[in-house]
Design a protein that fits this description.
- The protein has about 170 residues and is α/β, with parallel strands linked by helices.
- The protein is about 20% helix and about 30% strand.
- The protein is built from 4 helices and 11 strands; from the N terminus they run ββαβαββαβαβββββ.
- The strands form 2 sheets. Strands 1, 3, 4, 5, 6, 7, 9, 10 and 11 form a 9-stranded mixed sheet that branches. A two-stranded antiparallel ribbon has the order 2-8.
- The longest helix is centred in the first third of the chain and has 11 residues, at about 35-45.
- Bound molecules: NADP nicotinamide-adenine-dinucleotide phosphate (NAP).
- NADP nicotinamide-adenine-dinucleotide phosphate binds next to β1, β2, β3, α2 and α4.
Length: about 170
C-alpha cells in the first residue's frame, strides 16, 4: 500500500510463526503446512513481495510466481530478479512505482522485518500450533505498537488448529 503524497510507503508483513515465535531453522521453514502455503499464495498473488536475500535463497521455486519479487541484498549475488541494495533504494522504487495499485508485502525473514518495520502498518500472522525451537525467531515485541484486529484469530481450515491473526499499527 505505498502512498504517493510524499510520505513514506506503507507495507503489510505476512509470515507464519510457531508457538515460541520460531519462523525458521537452518535456512528453511521448519514445518510442513500446505494450508498456510496456499493461504500465503492466495493472499499475496498479484502483489509485490519484498524479501531478504536469505529468504530468497531458501525458496525452492523462484521467483514466487504471479507476484513481482523484490530482494534486498547489499551484495546482490546474482541476476534474474529485481535486487535492491538498500532500504533507500526500496523506498525509491515504491515511491516512483511501476506497480501502482498493487498490494505490497514484506515476507521476511527476521532481519528484513527488523530493517523495514517502521514502514509496516499491518501484519498478517499465521500462528502454527506447534513448538519448534528454531534458530530464527520473530521478535514479538515488534508487535507491541500494534492492535489485534480480530481477537482470537481466525481458524485456517477445518483440518488444523492453526489460526490467522491480523495486527494493525496503533494510530498515534
Ligand atoms: N515462517 C515464515 O513465514 C518465514 C518467512 C520468511 C523467512 N523465513 C525463514 O527465515 C530465515 C531467514 O531469515 P533471516 O532473518 O536469516 O534473513 P533474511 O531477512 O531473509 O535475509 C537477510 C539478508 O537480507 C539482506 N537485507 C535485509 N535487510 C536489508 C537492507 N535493509 N538493506 C540491504 N540488504 C538487506 C541482507 O543480505 P546481504 O547479506 O546479501 O547483504 C541480509 O543478510 C529462513 O530460515 C527462512 O526460512 C520464515
Amino acid at each position: 500500500m505505498p502512498r504517493h503524497n510524499g510520505e513514506d510507503p506503507r507495507f503489510t508483513a505476512i509470515f507464519a510463526r510457531a508457538l515460541d515465535w520460531t519462523v525458521g531453522h537452518e535456512g528453511r521453514i521448519p514445518w510442513f503446512a500446505p494450508h498456510d502455503m496456499r493461504f500465503f499464495r492466495e493472499r499475496t498473488t498479484n502483489g509485490v513481495v519484498i524479501m531478504g536475500r536469505r529468504t530468497w535463497e531458501s525458496l525452492p521455486k523462484k521467483p514466487l510466481p504471479g507476484r513481482h519479487n523484490l530482494v534486498l541484498s547489499s551484495t546482490r549475488p546474482d541476476t534474474g530478479v529485481h535486487w535492491l541494495k538498500t532500504k533507500a533504494e526500496l523506498l525509491d522504487v515504491a515511491r516512483h512505482s511501476l506497480f501502482d495499485g498493487k498490494e505490497w508485502f514484506v515476507i521476511g525473514g527476521v532481519e528484513t522485518f527488523r530493517s523495514l518495520w517502521d514502514l509496516i502498518d499491518r501484519a498478517i500472522v499465521t500462528k502454527i500450533n506447534q513448538h519448534c525451537d528454531g534458530d530464527t525467531k520473530f521478535p514479538e515485541e515488534l508487535l507491541d505498537a500494534f492492535d489485534i484486529r480480530v481477537p482470537g484469530g481466525v481458524v485456517m481450515t477445518s483440518e488444523t488448529t492453526d489460526t490467522v491473526w491480523v495486527y494493525e499499527r496503533e494510530l498515534e
